Amino acid sequence: MIIDIKAASAQDYPLLQAIWSRSVLATHDFLKPEDYAEIKGALIPHYFPAVSLYKAIDRNTREILGFIGVLNGGVEMLFIDANARGKGVGRRLLDFAIHHLAATHLDVNEQNSQAVGFYQHYACQQTHRSDVDSAGKPYPILTMKLPKKIPSNGSSHE
């Protein structure tokens, strides 16, 4: 699969919100329903416009596979559609964020073991842990430093 990275626009927001929803439902079983609804409702009016937002697109099908948002060197969001996970989309988006958006760090829910494992495999290193998220809710957050040199996984990313 050849993946292109393109800037997202407000026209993409509904599709990105749907990808966020499918991704979160597949990976965030710890999230309370009311918190899920609150975050989902804030994506389009608040969270998406606040970051440099990029989408990963399958070059052949033109389908949006996932997205990344970066602000002040921090990866604020990285979500991959549930049916596109494990195909190199997350790695491709992180590679792009490091090279083109000067991303240096990220926060991840400690309870999202799949994401934590992905970032560890990518050679991210934990630098901090908080018992609560940025909204003060009881979702522990790990701050991780992105590698300066992108780790090789033996495959090509086009």
Automatic annotation (TrEMBL):
Keywords: Acyltransferase, Transferase. SUPFAM superfamilies: Acyl-CoA N-acyltransferases (Nat) (SSF55729). The keyword Transferase applies. Its EC number is 2.3.1.-. CDD domains: NAT_SF. It holds the Pfam family Acetyltransf_10. Signal peptide: none annotated. It comes from the Bacteria. GO terms for molecular function: acyltransferase activity, transferring groups other than amino-acyl groups. This is GNAT family N-acetyltransferase.
